[in-house]
Write a structure and sequence with these properties.
Blueprint lengths: L3 H19 L31 H22 L7 E3 L9 H10 L2 H22 L4 H20 L1 H7 L4 E2 L1 H15 L4 H26 L5 H6 L9 E2 L3 H4 L1 H10 L10 H21 L20 E4 L3 H20 L10 H8 L1 H19 L8 H29 L9
Parallel strand pairs: 1-4, 2-3
Helix pairs in contact: 2-3, 2-4, 2-13, 2-14, 2-15, 2-16, 4-7, 4-11, 5-6, 5-7, 6-15, 8-11, 12-13, 14-16, 15-16
């Protein structure tokens, strides 16, 4: 009689052989699950798929484009707010603004999650290529340093003039430093620690959100919440946002499994996440920093705490991201061709796009804002956004080509 273990092993073997048939040159030997040479390292179960996963790149592209809509609106002085900060009430503009903001809110959760996924694939690929653990650590630390430098120079000046301000790149850089050590943990241990951090932070959030938001202490803001009063200002806290790249890192270990390449799997994940969101939001309390009350307009049911990030905010937006990924997997063959290929282009150069879009949209806004155009603000926002993409998408494509031609240059760190 075949026991359950044998069934699982046989299923995995068939899945790996099927995976091997999808990529020419992936031999039976390379399809074998091999633990890294370092005794304490994470055993990667075929995490790094040879070649890129176009649906993942395209999802990153969707997130980066949604982010750019938010930021050009901010530069034009008409923010697309559909979230709260520090537990304070939200100030919403017209419905086209807050609906646009609600859709664009997928940006930060998706971007942070995929940072971890990309790192998992990169680390596994380097190990498979025989790169030493020290070289991997060195790469992660240098890349973290480059991101911090960009955050405190180009991004800082473009965002806030010469007032020091740290944004998403600092948090990503800190995550890379953590991963330079945490990657040696066994995945089950890493998963338990990630879940414990996520749930503990959410449990403590009601007690720390108000007193630690807009604190004058830089380290409190960096660890717990956010503040525009510190030097430099901080928006994305470590304890609040690190669970997302950590979850993405765990996801990256298993992306080669056929089930995770099917649209219906991601539909199920998306529906499950939205179900969790609905339960949390409906009941209020744990994971819901700004509960909905009956005296509020109905659409405030969708207005949740982004900074610090509540579990309702994360599950809602990751649920939408999972459904988007399902759609991208369903049409993955289309992503190699126009008109969808540009999503992949932007996703493959996401960090470059991030830095470039702040400069480009900041410059465009300085030209457009003083004109006092006689059109609805939301129309000006989207028109200006599309105008910026005319510059940014070709720039992202040129950057990708340049990086491929010079794989050992400093471009590999962005």
């Amino acid at each position: 009689m075949i026991n359950g273990t044998e069934i699982v092993v046989n299923s995995l073997r068939r899945g790996l052989m099927r995976l091997a048939s999808l990529w020419p040159g992936l031999s039976r030997r390379s399809a074998t699950i091999v633990a890294p040479a370092h005794a304490g390292a994470v055993a990667v179960p075929q995490a790094a798929v040879r070649g890129r996963i176009l649906a993942i790149d395209a999802l990153r592209g969707v997130a980066i484009l949604a982010m750019s809509v938010r930021h050009i609106a901010y530069f034009l002085g008409r923010p697309l707010q559909a979230e709260t900060y520090g537990g304070q009430p939200a100030v919403l503009l017209s419905w086209p603004h807050w609906v646009s903001g609600l859709i664009a809110n997928i940006t930060a959760p998706t971007f942070f999650l995929l940072v971890g996924t990309s790192l998992a694939l990169l680390i596994a690929g380097r190990r498979r290529a025989g790169v030493s653990e020290w070289e991997i650590t060195r790469y992660l630390l240098i890349r973290a340093g480059v991101l911090i430098l960009l955050d405190l120079t180009i991004c800082d000046i473009a965002w806030a003039g010469f007032n020091p301000y740290t944004h998403v790149l600092l948090s990503i850089a800190i995550a890379m430093v953590i991963f330079s050590l945490a990657r040696f943990l066994p995945i089950p241990v890493f998963a338990v620690l990630t879940l414990a951090l996520l749930l503990t932070y959410q449990a403590l959030l009601p007690q720390v959100a108000l007193p630690l938001s807009q604190t004058g202490d830089f380290w409190q803001a960096l660890l717990w919440s956010y503040s525009t009063k510190t030097w430099p200002a901080v928006e994305f806290s470590i304890l609040g946002w690190f669970p997302l790249p950590a979850l993405g890192f765990i996801l990256g270990q298993w992306l080669s499994l056929p089930a995770l390449r099917r649209a219906r799997t991601w539909v199920g994940i998306g529906v499950a996440l939205l179900g969790i969101w609905l339960v949390l939001r409906w009941n209020g309390g744990f994971g819901d920093l700004t509960p909905y009350t009956p005296d509020q307009p109905w659409h405030f049911f969708f207005i949740m705490s982004k900074t610090p990030p509540s579990l309702t905010f994360l599950t809602f937006n990751l649920g939408l991201s999972a459904l988007t990924l399902a759609a991208l997997f369903a049409c993955e063959s289309w992503l190699e061709h126009r008109p969808l290929k540009w999503l992949v282009t932007c996703g493959q150069a996401s960090l470059f796009f991030f830095v470039a879009h702040i400069v480009v949209y900041g410059a465009i806004a300085r030209l457009v804002a003083p004109l006092q155009l006689p059109f609805p603000a939301i129309l000006i926002t989207y028109t200006t956004w599309l105008g910026g993409l005319v510059v940014l998408v070709p720039l992202a494509g040129a950057y990708n080509r340049l990086r491929r031609r010079h794989p050992q240059s400093i471009l590999r760190y962005l």
